[in-house]
Design a protein that fits this description.
CATH superfamily of the largest domain: Dehydroquinate synthase-like - alpha domain
Strand content: 5-15%
Bound molecules: fe (ii) ion
Number of domains: 2
Shape: globular
CATH topology of the largest domain: Dehydroquinate synthase-like, alpha domain
Helix content: 40-55%
Structural class: alpha/beta
Order of helices and strands: EHEHHEHEHEEEEHHHHHHHHHH
Largest sheet: 6 strands, parallel
Number of helices: 15
Radius of gyration: 20 Å
């Protein structure tokens, strides 16, 4: 038995925001949630504002979203949304602004008080539905525009934790390669590797199903078409739009399957060493795959158009530079946290803390 549920409408193509105002405006007063620069630099914020002004929809911009959003800032965002009396959210940016929008949407309608404590967000059950939201991704990696997940940073636990709620699916996601074409090359590479990991981890996941398999291999096939452009830095508008779609396919896949230890082990690299999320996953995915059933691995490589697992390793090495050295002590500390992650159980093989230490060592040292 398997289920497939993905309620987000996805619109793909150049100028899809300005040519579909009725899909963008899903309320009477908008809160735009974005990062300090992602909305402006990509050109997406200008497009959104021009549509809202044309349609005379009042709006406020909340552009205080940092990378790896932290729970207290989300609560503040919820307070701001209530002060503005926003009744819908437009999220513009990479994974962080999209994850932030979902959390702000929950805190906007569920005030933190005695009956609703900050960490209650992780239960996924709320008295009031979150504000309705639409998303405009400005990176092609996270897939958050089509998932019900939001990943928040918890300083107390020194890690990240996700919540999911069916009402946190965006109503519509707008995928326009114009918004990602001017990304710095390393950001484009890191995010593409994140998308690739979602597809691979979904395809090799214990919870994989016929529908997730079909989309995972199609997403990998699309990324495979653009591996050379990602390496050489000559991504054109067509490549950018296709990579956005592949990234959304990755999001749809992990909405059904979840991720694996690549992600939970990668969180430590991001949390403790500030290594970008996709880069962290890219460091670990080869060692993860080495332990997976060979048929599933060959299917992934075939879809990508890569001959062998060793060639895959070489490719990742070329596009993901080493930004730091690692030592055994920190690896042992990280494994203590990462082995407790829920997605350990989704791996296609049994994972022990010793195995995680081995994977970290072989990947990083
Ligand atoms: Fe990811």
């Amino acid at each position: 038995m398997f289920k497939f549920h993905m309620p987000t409408k996805v619109i793909v193509g150049e100028n899809c925001v300005t040519t579909n105002p009725q899909e963008l405006i899903i309320g009477t007063r908008a809160l735009i949630v974005t990062g300090k620069s992602s909305g402006k630099k990509s050109g997406a914020l200008d497009d959104v504002i021009s549509v809202l002004e044309n349609e005379k929809i009042p709006y406020h911009v909340y552009d205080k979203v940092e990378n790896n959003p932290e729970i207290n800032d989300m609560i503040k965002g919820g307070i701001f949304a209530r002060e503005c009396q926003a009744d819908f959210i437009i999220s513009i940016g990479g994974g962080s602004p999209m994850d932030a929008a979902k959390a702000i949407g929950v805190y906007a309608t569920n005030e933190v008080n005695e009956g609703f404590q900050p960490y209650d967000i992780f239960t996924g059950k709320y008295k009031n539905k979150p504000l309705p939201m639409v998303a405009i991704p400005t990176t092609s990696g996270t897939g958050s525009e089509v998932t019900p997940y939001s990943i928040l940073t918890l300083h107390k636990e020194k890690t990240k934790r996700s919540f999911s709620c069916v009402d946190c699916f965006f109503k519509t996601a707008f995928l326009d390669g114009r918004y990602t074409i001017s990304l710095p090359l390393q950001v484009a590479r890191n995010t593409a590797v994140d998308a690739m990991c979602h597809l691979i981890e979904g395809y090799t996941n214990k919870k994989a199903s016929p529908s997730s398999d079909y989309m995972a291999l199609e997403g990998l096939r699309i990324i495979g078409k653009h591996l050379n452009a990602l390496e050489n830095g000559n991504l054109d508008i067509n490549a950018c739009t296709e990579l956005l779609w592949a990234s959304s396919l990755g999001g749809i896949v992990i909405s059904q399957t979840g991720t694996t230890i690549v992600h939970s082990m990668g969180y430590a690299l991001t949390y403790f060493c500030d290594i970008p999320h996709g880069m962290a996953n890219g460091y670990l995915v080869y060692e993860y795959l080495k332990r997976v059933d060979s048929v599933r691995v060959s299917n992934c490589l075939c879809a990508l158009g890569i001959k062998s697992l060793e060639n895959f390793k070489e490719y990742l090495k070329k596009i993901l530079p080493r930004v730091r050295n690692f030592n055994e002590k920190e690896i042992i500390d990280w494994s203590e946290i990462s082995i407790k992650a829920r997605n350990v159980a989704s791996c296609p093989y049994e994972v022990t803390r010793e195995m995680e230490i081995e994977i970290y060592k072989s990947s990083l040292m």
